[in-house]
Design goal:
With 143 residues, the chain is mainly α. 63% of the residues lie in helices and 0% in strands. The chain has one domain.
Amino acid sequence: MDLQWFFTECNSYTGRWNRQKFWLYPLGMSLLVLIPLGLLFWAFIAMQIEVLTWISGAMLGIWYFYVLYVSTCAYIKRFHDLGRSGWYSLLAFVPYVWIIAVIWAGFFQGTPWKNQYGDNPLGDTGDASKSKKTEVEEEKKEL
């Protein structure tokens, strides 16, 4: 995966993400940048360099909002994989309800077929030509 793909994939609300991408990309991106920026911030505070402390603090704030945006994109793509609307991602911002949103998005398996949000991110996990709707129609015909 190249860097361009990483930034286009993380900055988009369209498509589907499996559970692995949901956990790794926003978490990895946060840790790779927030830890060094945080260490710089505390180092500048310890050295009492006020201008650099303000600059590093502003950089931390900007990065925080970017990570919040990418995390929202991850929730939307994950709910798309579950066959749900991206509006369900707003559950992550409700106090105490966010725990349910994390469990739902992070641990439940997505739909194994193509849905209205795109193809299965894991590839074909069965008969790709069938969708849930066609399976229900076939069951009705049998009755």
